[in-house]
Amino acid sequence: MSALHLNLVVPCYNEEEVLGETSRQLLAQIDRLQREGIADERSSITFIDDGSKDGTWRIIENLHRGDSRIHGLKLSRNRGHQNALLAGLLSAQGEVLVSLDADLQDDIEAIPKMIAAYRNGADIVYGVRARRDTDTAFKRNTARMYYALLRKFGVDVIPDHADYRLMSRRALEALRDFREVNLFLRGIIPLLGFRTEIVYYDRLSRFAGESKYPFVKMLALALEGVFSFSTVPLRWITIMGATLAFASFCFGFWALIIKLFEPQLALPGWTSIVVPMFFLGGLQLLALGVIGGYLSRVYTETKQRPRFIIEKSI
Ligand code: UDP
Ligand code: MG
């Protein structure tokens, strides 16, 4: 079988501490794949600088000078991991692209297995974490609950799959047609269809630097997954509202009966006023928040602003 044009797509935000080692290991992996006749001589690595504030771009330029197989894409400002990744996926050349993190947490030994799955006919190969004991217990548990919740909401996501995956040219061209601005690639990719395969790998720890995904960014991504892919929360608040309205109606009817037939029992009650007031107030705010979540997305989607702007490309 002829060698394929492979391109590794790596979004980077303030990753100056890891880029040297990452490119060394990725190049070694490409060398090996080229020697074994799996990857051809055009195979390369594309680093996307997501508007880093440190020396990330300078390092990418140096790496490019040292080895022409290293390509770089510089976004005009920080747009977040998902947008940087999309910029890479839609711009990089190659028959197959493999997206992975800059910190080598995605074990690169899975790449040959992904290519083998592609050879067997898969257009999309998901890297799924078999073990993730290098992540904190908090991250593991919240992630597990989150994936369960998403599935309850009817969103087709692969549990324990982040953005480590192989995509064929066909799948990438299909991805281009998804014009949404609010990006949650993990939700979009399963919508593409095609034959998919899973490759398991062990999640390693970040070998240098610290996470560029603080809790707030993680939460934002999690909300994206819900609001951009499911309208079930809207149905839930409708059902909740209807149930409460019915209960209130029964309560009112009961109060009227008491008032008419047992007036001595109908004492002015503080609890029965205050408790439902707080409860309903809270519920209404929650419902407004959920509706606001959808409304804000309609707002951003209708503007159709560009999802990334490339400043430079080497
Ligand atoms: N990243 C990015 N833009 C951002 C934040 C992160 O391109 O605004 C990249 C980062 O450089 C890394 C990947 O996204 O390659 C995953 O980030 P990180 O490893 O910090 O996340 P964690 O593994 O802690 O979830
Ligand atoms: Mg990481």
UniProtKB/TrEMBL annotation:
The keyword Metal-binding does not apply. Keywords: Glycosyltransferase, Membrane, Transferase, Transmembrane, Transmembrane helix. Pfam families: Glycos_transf_2 (PF00535). One of its GO terms (molecular function) is glycosyltransferase activity. Residues 9-174 form the Glycosyltransferase 2-like domain. The chain crosses the membrane at residues 239-261, 273-295. Coiled coil: none annotated. One of its GO terms (cellular component) is plasma membrane. It is found in: Membrane. It is a multi-pass membrane protein. It comes from the Bacteria. Gene3D superfamilies: Spore Coat Polysaccharide Biosynthesis Protein SpsA, Chain A. This is Glycosyl transferase family 2. It comes from Novimethylophilus kurashikiensis.
